Amino acid sequence: MLSVLRASTSVLPRAKASLPVLSSFIRHVHADNTDLKDELRSLILKQSEDVREFRQKHGNKVVGEVTIDMMYGGMRGIKGLICETSVLDPDEGIRFRGHSIPDCQLALPKVARGEEPLPEGLFWLLVTGEVPTDDQVKAISREWAKRADLPSHVVTMLNNFPSTVHPMAQLSAALTTLSSQSHFAKAYAEGKPKKLYWEFVYEDAMDLIGKLPTIAATIYRNLFRDGSPVCPIDVKKDWSWNFTDMLGYDDPMFTELMRMYLTIHSDHEGGNVSAHACHLVGSALSDPYLSYAAGLNGLAGPLHGLANQEVLLWLTKLQQDIGVDVSDEEMHAFIWDTLQSGQVVPGYGHAVLRKTDPRYLVQREFALKHLPENKLFRLVSQLYKIVPDILIEQGKAKNPWPNVDAHSGVLLTHYGMTEMSYYTVLFGVSRALGCMASMIWSRALGFPIERPKSMSTAGLKKLCNTN
Ligand code: CMX
């Protein structure tokens, strides 16, 4: 069974498989309008009316039940959030505004002679639900490039962090400090009406996304390139290209990889820790910088985004302990050692997914195409053959398949980015696209402060007439 699944996923069937979907997918409602905020204005009016009518008619419809196990079990499976930007199917994986990763790879604009979608296009799709034209994507690239400069107090703070502060902590601190620039916080303090909130959140979101690569590259160069400054932004280059330039990488394939990486890590519906933390904090009308810093703090956990660092650490230990050219038996024993010492196998399992993560597969396709002989890639492929059966045999993990984090480090290492403590920062740059798209809509639709009801064990026992 496992080998059948693997056989079907190791080839690249996406172009053929995606074509029927694409006919309805490619639609540019206002193809000549390159102003995203302007586009949003009419969409928000329409969607607000739609939601108002829908709630009026069906507001009392019951969508699910909550068991005591769900309450103790991390609220798994409880339907309690609205997220318009993407939906995660346990078997199919993520769909951004209804469209799978292979669809997006095919349909979203790319650079000339490029093969990977531009994250700018994905952002447009997440925000509007429509596939942008090349011109619309170029307008976003220009917009983000124009907003990339950092205020001096943020640069000074970053330059003064001791190297012992983890890159994710630096990223989160920089975002928190950028709150001083928030248009939304200023507008709120001035008493601007609620129906205009989204416009200020939009400006903050665009600033935040524009500035994130500059912050991330400054952190990288401070920690790993002797503090040499980042190069200036070029408004003619796309977001990922400026980012890799500032990091100090000049291989065009690394930039292509970055375009793909920043696209696929962007959004994973609303309940994951980073998206939910950002949404929760934003619901208190904390500004987008403070809200996204909260999301980043969640992303920095080893069961979430930090898993990409953990995977590389674990692979490094594997190579130190048993080497690079290892037999299946040796690998088998190493994996069992990990499990028996009470650790998780990083990069495997998922709270929602029950199949191999399509974000893993798209990275695997990239590796098969561009670095098939890479020894670490071969090791990762060997793990893909062996880990799921072991996790099934152990009988604990509900999903024995690899997730996005099992593959990203291998690709980055291939192009020379070996500093694994930095990997989650890249995830954090990308996740802003989804979190910010959602935050614009949360304020546009006037979502209230989030406040679910909690209960004590004593209260639950009383409910069950037991003690
Ligand atoms: N290795 C070993 N044990 C695992 C496991 C793995 N990869 N995945 C799950 N399990 C264990 C859990 O720890 C849990 O054990 P206990 O009952 O002793 O607590 C049991 O299996 C059941 O867990 P689950 O319901 O299958 O998984 P959860 O929804 O609770 O957790 C996740 C999901 C991702 C945190 C978990 O699979 C995990 O820890 N994986 C490794 C870390 C990782 O790769 N995280 C990245 C996820 C993607 C992302 O967010 O970036």
UniProtKB/TrEMBL annotation:
Pathway: Carbohydrate metabolism; tricarboxylic acid cycle; isocitrate from oxaloacetate: step 1/2. InterPro entries: Citrate_synth-like_lrg_a-sub (IPR016142), Citrate_synth-like_sm_a-sub (IPR016143), Citrate_synthase (IPR002020), Citrate_synthase_AS (IPR019810), Citrate_synthase_euk (IPR010109), Citrate_synthase_sf (IPR036969). Keywords: Transferase. It comes from the Eukaryota. It is found in: Mitochondrion matrix. The keyword tRNA processing does not apply. It holds the Pfam family Citrate_synt. Homodimer. Belongs to the citrate synthase family. This is Citrate synthase. It comes from Saccoglossus kowalevskii (Acorn worm). The gene is LOC100373446.
